[in-house]
Description:
This protein is of the alpha+beta class. Helices cover 35% and strands 16% of the residues. The model is unreliable at 1-37, 74-82, 84-88, 97-128 and 705-753 (pLDDT under 50).
Amino acid sequence: MYWRMIESRSDNDYGQSDSDADEPLFKWADTWADILLFPVYFVIIFVFGAIFSMIPVLGGIWLLLTAIYSSIKTKIKSAKSPRLFFVCMGILLVIVLPLVFCSTPTPLPHSPTPTGTTVPAPTGITIPHSAPTSTTHAITILLDDFRPQPYPGASVYYYNRLGGDRGAVNNSILDWGNEQVTTTISSGDSWGGVWMSLNHQIREELSINFSAILPPQILPPYQSQIAGITAVIVDGTPDRTFKLELKDRGELHWKKEIVLNGGQVVSSDLPALGNINELVWVLDHTSAGDYVVLESVSFTATTQITDTATAAFVWSYGMLLNNWNPATGLVRDKAHDADGEFDAIQATGSLAAATAVAEQLGIVTRADALQIVNKISDTLLLNLPHSRGLWPHWVKVSPADEITIVPNTEWSSVDTVIAAIGLLTAQSALGMDTSGTEHKLQSIDWNDLVTPGGISHGYVYTGDQIPYAWDVFGGESWLVELAYAGVTGQVAPITYPAPPTANGSGFIDELAWLFVPPPSGQDYWGTDWTSYRLAATDGQISYYLTHYPQSCFGQVGLFGLSAAEVPQGGIYQAFGVGGRFAAANNGAALLGAPVVVPHYAAMIASLRPDEAIEMWDWLINDGYFTPLTNVESLVFPPSLGCDSATMVWNQLKGSWNLSLQTLGWGRYLAERDGQVPILWQATTTNPLLQKGYLLLAPGGPTPTLTATLTQPEWGYQNRYRLAKKAGLASMVATPTVPGALRQVQCSASNYGC
């Protein structure tokens, strides 16, 4: 050290002689108290210094050093001048360093969140959820297995499993049998075959991008790619050439040829392909009467999504968005309907809502979400016809782009409300102007619609009022009342305001809560929705276990009775567990076996996630629900066992039920990730909805149940696995409900107790 190099002096400043050189470096005062009082002085000075800013602090430190120096100068006679300086510095460091290293930074001030107020995640910022992985896995997408049979009164079933149409090439003779199709060459021809549209009807010439098969607004990590093709041939004329071809608007992009030698499987990997709208198989170099019999055609696709709930949302949303026409802003009612011939208004508004949810979850960008919702808004608010303020249920679009009501359909109050609330909640979620949608709701002639028993269903095609009203408890009535209350500040009468619903159809229980939060406590009519929803869900899940314990649904763990087209197609049925005016309708009387409708499980995923995920995981793993195929309803025919291969299923991609399952899974994913479902914020930010909501739900919204209901004690997955081993005997008991929730449920009402 530098000071040790200084030459010693004979007499230092303290009168120390050279003879004292062997003394210790530090010779302390006569008592420790003299030194230990210094920290006390320091604390006193520091406190006053903190009050009078940093200058007094620095002055205090200087005074302290002076005091210490003087004291040591007086008390420590043996210390030389340099040594004395370092004694002072050491004492100071002993005091200051603990203060520096042990102090806790003062947190920055923040604005407190008012109690009971939900603050949504900022628009455009997505909280990560179960994102796709960096690796891909394969899924099979069935194009056709030739099992669906003609609708009643028809001779041919015209559609494949993707919802595209199909037909003969070069006048070939087609025999659409059960589970196979035979293509026979006509007289005078040397070749023939079959064409299949991959995306809606072939005349629309709409393609699928094989490198990203979902609509382009869906971000790349959630896309799927078609990487292979397989055709199962049962029989055929030997030595004839069989070709598989992939085309886009007539232009060939890929083909594979084989020579027939009986039953064989044609399977091939595909190169990276772009837009394809048609698959064709051709029987070439033939004579009249030559034939080929196919059992199935399928694609192999890849996906990065590994989470069941995420796949269920993304693929449902993708199919719904694919039913939308960005030119007209309307959603076709079903995938196999031609665009503009039968478009659904309630599904169009619901697509706007689903798009806002997709933006919250990071599935689409904010820019794309705004573009979609803006186009829907322009179409609904500016271009639709109306009668006394009500929109039609269904519309068609003329070649001149004029939108008119489909003949002999209704001007619907509930479909107008669903479309308007779907649009309004989406606009609110994305920070868009909602005044046009509010004005639309205000333009409805509510005085004419209100009847002594409830709000009328609307008007028939010719304009006369429909002689029925929303007069029974349920989600449809609640939404119509919400719109009415928001506009008028009043509540319309309902003849039957208390549970049950009319027929126990599952979607009626959960419909309203896809768009707005369920009430906490009792609503305007005294219904405790928390208790009712839990009990209703229990009744649906346990229905087959209780009433048909030996059924395939009871063994596999499938459930859900809700409104849908029947598995054989062509007939729409309001399946349900029974209600105020109807006994249970499980489809057995009509079809000979009971039915399950999967969209109900999606709608209750927030309440019973284990059961919903278990069921949809089964649908995905068995290849029924994919990025391009939906399951509208399903049935296990009697006496054919419970093998999934025997199941009869309807692949209808109906836009309304796609909306229900998309919004159901979206709500669950948001709650699972700790987010408030984005559509719900409109009830606090939009004055019209807030006014109506607080009239119907004076206690405000209920907290999310998802966190509570995902505890292991629900045990559905293990419950059904154990049931399979135990012969179902233990499964007919009361469904498992967590004890705390069961107590809340039973103390609030008699539902399910």
